[in-house]
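Handout, section B. The chain below has 115 residues.
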Amino acid sequence: EAYARMNFLYQAAYACVFTSPALARFYVRTMKLIARKMVLRLDPSIKRSVCKKCNNLLVPGYTATIRCRAMQESHIVVTCCFCGEVKRFSLINRQKKKARHHRRREGQNLCVFIV
C-alpha cells in the first residue's frame, strides 16, 4: 500500500512540475517522508530524478541541466536549476571500476615491495 501511494505521489509530482513546482516539491517531500517512516527504499531511477537539496524533480531542460564530461572517467553531470546542487553519475559499470581499481592497487603494492 505504501509503494502504491509513493508511486501516485511521484506521478502527481511529475504531472504538476510544469504548472506548479512548489506543489511538485511538496509531493516529492511527502513521498520521501513515507519511505523514511515505513523504512522502504526508493528505486535508484527515482533517486536520480530528485534533487537531494530542494526535493525538486529534475526534468532535463526545465528544472535541470545535463552535461556529459570525460575528465578521468566518463560521467554525467546533472545540475538543479533551482538550488544549483550538482549530481554526478558514472558511465562505467561498477564491476569494471572495481577491476580497474584492483589492478591499480596490485601495481602499487608491487612497487612498494620491490624497494
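Note. Strands lie at 64-70, 74-80, 86-90. Compare this with the example in section A.
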